[in-house]
């Protein structure tokens, strides 16, 4: 299918990534899967490759390219190979936008060079055990010390991807009580050093899918956070979080489309090799019809994901458009991956086959970044309903 979203530079990056994945990831991916995380030193390799610095200003060691298209290429190539880069995705997709949007000049000088090199990995801690989609209901709090030099952070977070390896975490915490007319008021963002006294990593969570990305519970007991590590203005954190939700949801939508495309590729290869009753599975009409229907859905999802990507790069992707893209692409991926697993028969249920891992990995797409039900509410509101 003809695409116009990528140019020669993007395709050159694709070739580099594909070779890197084949050499550095595929041979050891089963080990990472068994361990439940990618090794920390792998992120240094990603830093050396330039993956983390594409959209970071040149003065801080990046390439200064203000585009999400290189991230899109990375998602396609990882899905194509049936691998992931561990928890590093949140480093760029969730961590970097807040640094670029909110960090002062001094903060950027302190943080971005290490961000680009992979020496300092970042994560975002928003969700709490009792607050998922209801961000305003968070209990974690940060109180300014009497001498005004630091905040004292207390509370806990859960489902924090990248939380095991993170060196610095953007923690959302209440610095003031909510107002009667605005319960979203009073949330602030802090770039917390994970080596701080009182900061602790709880369980590394045992997930259904995405097993190579480290996801953890975090706890804060009287953690001292210097005032210099406040991101943006105090009490305005909820608004900042909302600003980046569109790009986060685009990332999930595009990743889901890429997974669906990969599932068709895996199934097509399998049915051409597998024989039943003396014929290849690919020769049966049902197989052809199933794969054709899946390909049609993937083509539609690609168009939606590409359109959202162009709008995002142009700074024009609205909350409703991002919600629509996420809803559509994740639902397509759910249907396509399930049908492609069915074509694998019993082997589709075995983790040694990439389709099985893809099936498990895909399920969270309709939950995190806002559930499908939340996406429908956003779309309905934009329709005036």
Automatic annotation (TrEMBL):
Keywords: Branched-chain amino acid catabolism, FAD, Flavoprotein, Oxidoreductase
UniProt enzyme class: oxidoreductase
Pfam families recorded: Acyl-CoA_dh_1, Acyl-CoA_dh_M, Acyl-CoA_dh_N
Ranges for domain Acyl-CoA dehydrogenase/oxidase N-terminal: 7-119
Native source species: Streptomyces fulvorobeus
Cofactor(s) this protein requires: FAD
Domain Acyl-CoA oxidase/dehydrogenase middle: 123-223
Biochemical pathway: Amino-acid degradation; L-valine degradation
Protein name (record): Acyl-CoA dehydrogenase
The enzyme's E.C. designation: 1.3.8.7
Superkingdom of this protein's organism: Bacteria
One annotated GO molecular function: medium-chain fatty acyl-CoA dehydrogenase activity
């Amino acid at each position: 299918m003809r695409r116009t979203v990528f140019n020669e530079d993007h395709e050159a990056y694709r070739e580099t990534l594909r070779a890197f994945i084949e050499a550095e990831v595929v041979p050891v991916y089963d080990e990472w899967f068994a361990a439940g995380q990618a090794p920390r030193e792998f992120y240094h390799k990603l830093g050396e490759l330039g993956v983390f610095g594409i959209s970071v200003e040149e003065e801080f060691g990046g390439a200064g390219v203000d585009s999400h298209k290189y991230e899109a290429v990375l998602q396609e190539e990882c899905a194509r190979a049936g691998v992931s880069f561990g928890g590093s995705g949140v480093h760029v997709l969730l961590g970097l936008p807040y640094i670029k949007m909110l960090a002062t000049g001094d903060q950027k000088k302190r943080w971005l060079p290490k961000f680009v090199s992979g020496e300092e990995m970042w994560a975002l801690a928003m969700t709490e055990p009792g607050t998922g989609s209801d961000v305003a209901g968070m209990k974690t709090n940060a109180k300014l010390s009497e001498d005004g030099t630091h905040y004292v952070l207390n509370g806990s977070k859960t489902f924090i991807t990248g939380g095991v390896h993170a060196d610095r975490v953007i923690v959302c915490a209440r610095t003031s009580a909510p107002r009667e007319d605005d319960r979203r008021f009073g949330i602030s963002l802090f770039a917390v050093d994970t080596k701080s006294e009182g900061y602790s990593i709880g369980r590394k969570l045992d997930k259904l899918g995405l097993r190579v990305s480290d996801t953890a519970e975090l706890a804060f007991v009287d953690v001292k956070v210097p005032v210099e590590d406040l991101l943006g203005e105090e009490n305005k954190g909820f608004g900042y979080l909302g600003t980046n939700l569109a790009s986060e949801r685009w990332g999930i939508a595009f990743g889901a489309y890429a997974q669906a495309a990969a599932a068709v590729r895996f199934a097509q290869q399998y049915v051409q090799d597998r024989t039943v009753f003396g014929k290849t599975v690919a020769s049966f009409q049902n197989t052809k019809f199933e794969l054709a229907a899946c390909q049609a859905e993937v083509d539609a999802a690609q168009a939606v994901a590409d359109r959202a990507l162009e709008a995002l790069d142009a700074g024009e992707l609205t909350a409703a458009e991002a919600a629509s893209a996420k809803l559509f692409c994740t639902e397509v991926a759910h249907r396509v991956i399930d049908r492609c697993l069915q074509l694998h028969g019993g082997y589709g249920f075995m983790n040694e086959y990439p389709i099985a891992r893809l099936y498990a990995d895909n399920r969270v797409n309709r939950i995190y970044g806002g559930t499908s039900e939340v996406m429908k509410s956003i779309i309905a509101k934009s329709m005036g309903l």
